[in-house]
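Comment thread on ticket #2218

A.B. wrote:
> Attaching the input chain for the structure job we discussed in standup.
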Amino acid sequence: MAYSLYIIRLKNRLQTLCTLLLLSLLLLTAFGCGHDEDFPVPEPSTVNKTLFMFFPWTGSATSSGLYHNFLTNIAGVEAAIEKGKSAPNTRTIVLIADSRESAKMFEIVYDADKGKCSHKIVKQYKALEMTGKGLQEYIGEMKRYSPTPLYAMIMGAHGSGWIPKTEKEKRSRSIGGLTYTEQLNISEIAYAISSNGIKMQFICFDDCYMSNIELAYELKDAANYLIASTSEIMEEGLPYQDVFQYMAAQTPDYKAITDGFLGYYTIAKYPYGSLSVIDCAYATSMAQVLRQMNTSGITAPEASTLSAQDGETACRFYDLGNYLREYNHNLRMADRDTVEYRSVMERLIPSAVKTPHLFTVYRGWDGSVYDVSAYSGITISDPSTAPKVIRSKSETSWWKATH
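C.D. wrote:
> Ran it. Output below, let me know if you need it in another format.
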């Protein structure tokens, strides 16, 4: 009798223990899967490339900034997809801020039966954290939702090249919004991408002044190609309805992208703009060219002899091709051997286009049209004496590699 009671009590204890273990496992499973529940599973497909569009907040207390232009850009992408001008094995994911306190990530999904695109929400955000860590998280979430062999990225915002953000100069930014807390340095972008184990097929900067050799050198391990402008981009941005198909292709047609840009802006209401493609694989070779020149003992070209590319009074960006030609001229005048750079330049910039005239908001009350005397599709800030450049250029990876 006592033995039977002992067995019963033992069984009850074992049942209780098993129940507790089961509850613990259920709780662990619930918490473990909670993070993934924020991400709906994409439909099974043959997708092998993800194109990630990133549009941070660029507005102020009284303006929505470029937000409505970004919506037009997204509509252009959807128009291209609906017209069959997009690779079906490329998934497009958008992260856009609709205010300083709200953003969302969604997939553009094409319904073949309806012939229309719709948005599949991936995640809602209270606000975007514009830091390297924040961007790292967003790219990681995009990658987790869409694990593919290839990734490419489009970044739309305000831009000011490689020049780092500073708390005092609110308009000085590498990429982002109007204030210091809404901007990203190029080093932060490189970190966010590389730390996710990704090397972008390309990064398209739909922003002003982002085609710089300093920027290309900083991003050479984070992207194979850059698509960017040496000048200011009109608020319409790239004509995605015309060029998205070439971006979405498994092997992008970079010349078609630049040609599409030029074709659009040649007849646009505001016919101004430049766009070029940078092959980052040759950024190191170009650094070797400049290092050879800089260690020759010959004085580098002065800014007054060069082709300024931006609209500011204290120019920040000069044409790289023009700079190299003038450097070789100085070497010849000193009866020194010149440095071969043309073959590297041809590979560094496989395609570059420009309208006859360019536009800047930095001149005149409503901006002004201006021309440049030389154009190679990429700039350099070495000769600049602008205060914001002087303070920062010696800290860039480019400067350290070339001096």
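A.B. wrote:
> Thanks. Noting for the ticket: The longest strand covers residues 90-99.
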